[in-house]
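Known limitations

C-alpha cells in this collection are predictions and should be treated as such. Users comparing against experimental data should check residue numbering before alignment. To illustrate the layout, the record for Major facilitator superfamily (MFS) profile domain-containing protein is reproduced below. The input appears on top and the generated C-alpha cells appear beneath it.
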Amino acid sequence: MDGDIPGLRWSRGPSASLAILGRFAVNISYNIGLQYAAELLPTVVRAQGVALIHIMGYVASILAPFVVYLANISPELPLLILGILGIVGGVLCLLLPETMDTEMPQTLADGEDFGKDQRFWDNPCFPRITPR
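Generated C-alpha cells:
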C-alpha cells in the first residue's frame, strides 16, 4: 500500500505527523505574535499592532485553501509550505527581545529603545553563569 509520497511505502504516518507539526508551529507563531504585541508595542500603538496581527491571521486564513489546492500539483507542497512557515516563524521568535522583569514601553521613544541593551543570544531559559 503506497502512502502520500510516491515511491515510499507506509508514508502516511510521517506525512500526517509533519502536517500536524507544521500546523502546531504556525499556531504557536501566531499566538506568540499576539503575546509579544501586547508586551513590546508601546501603549500608544498597541491596538494598531494587535489589529495588524489579526489581519495577517485573516489573510493567512484566506490563503489556506490555495495552499491546500497545491496538493494537486504535488502532494508534498502543502506540507512543505506549512513546515517552512512554522520553522521560520519559530526561529524569528528567538530573535525578539526578552521581556521578563522589564518595564514595558509606554511611548514611541521607549519602544525604540526597548531591548537595545540586550545581547543577541540572551535567553532566560539558559541564563548566563557569572563566575563567583
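For this record: Residues 12-113 form one domain. The chain has a mean pLDDT of 79. Please report discrepancies through the issue tracker.
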